[in-house]
Amino acid sequence: MDLSLSALRTIRVVAETRSFTAAAAALGYTQSAVSRQIAAAERELGAALFERTPRGVQLTRAGGLVLRQVVIALDALEQAEKVLAGEPRQVRRVRVGAIPVAGTALLPRSIAVLRRIRADLEISTREGTTPALVPAVRAGTLDAALITGRPPFRSPDQEQPPLKQHTIVEASLAIAVPSASRHAGPEPVTLESLQGASWIASRSTDDEPQLGVWPGLPGRPVVQHWARDWATKLSLVSEGAGITTVPAEFLPRVPPGVTITHIADVPEEIRRVTLTHSPNLDPDVAAPLVQATREAAATLLAEQDAPPR
């Protein structure tokens, strides 16, 4: 078997992006060049690595087996390059992805805790949605990721072996409303009272559901503002521009002019945040990551329960 370093990298990036077009953009190639590299690798290996689907490409069973070895090989080469470059061997770099809402408090605090308990681990981070982060973990371009799931909390992908998942926190959804609005009273709001409200939401697709409008809200909600950034969403709420759905446990501090309230007449909506990583991740890295993230989450929850001063 004779696969070039370029071919190995192309296999990993296609597996992460699930798209020849996106892989070409990331690698600086043309799409036809990526297709030729993958076809050549499949001929060399005697097996199809990717299955073409209407939504892109996904790994075959053989592709999953090959990818694991590709990741090992590329990581070993990267480590060799660092050693030859004279980087200190005692520092171990760990790449962590996170959903946007985790970046508001959970991720920064987790890094702070990790510095205290394992100073030899140096964290680099990347923001993304759950559907984007899971393939990156599977492809080995991320070591771990903070992702979210909704009931019934299935595995984040269908590939084998399953990714390891550690529950960090379960957050209940709530509504962020302007403090000066009629929704900010002492009692929870009702679905009826939300009829005609202006919403602030993130655009969603079938693969990437985003928060904004309350899940299952009847009728056709009016989305006045589209935004993905949480600071933007909450700033719009504080200025009276609309209301938005939030995972309450992740927002211990909200801007002045924003009130967090709940909906009284609907079942509770729960989202679970997990730290997800490859089953091959070194336990000496995985264990402190889980410990730091759970400690950070516990601190956030404790701050919410503390009485205001």
Describe the structure.
It is a single chain. The chain is an alpha/beta fold. It contains 8 helices and 11 strands. The protein has helices at about 5-15, 20-25, 30-45, 60-85, 105-115, 130-140, 230-240, 285-305; strands at about 50-55, 55-60, 90-100, 120-125, 145-150, 165-180, 200, 220-225, 245, 260, 270-275. The strands form 3 sheets. Strands 3, 4, 5, 6, 9, 10 and 11 form a 7-stranded mixed β-sheet that branches. A two-stranded antiparallel ribbon has the order 1-2. Helix 1 crosses helix 3 (about 30-45) and helix 5 (about 105-115) packs across helix 8. The protein is globular. The mean pLDDT is about 85.
Rg over alpha carbons: 22 Å
What is the residue-mean pLDDT, rounded to a whole number?
A: 85
Query: What's the total number of strands?
Result: 11
Number of helical regions: 8
Q: Report the span from N to C terminus.
A: 67 Å
Order of helices and strands: HHHEEHEHEHEEEEHEEEH
How large a portion of the residues is in β-strands, by DSSP E?
Answer: 15-25%
- Major sheet attributes: 7 strands, mixed
Question: Could you give a quick summary of the protein structure above?
Answer:
37% of the residues lie in helices and 22% in strands. The chain has eight helices and eleven strands.
State the main characteristics.
single chain; 309 residues; alpha/beta; seven-stranded mixed sheet; two-stranded antiparallel ribbon; 8 helices
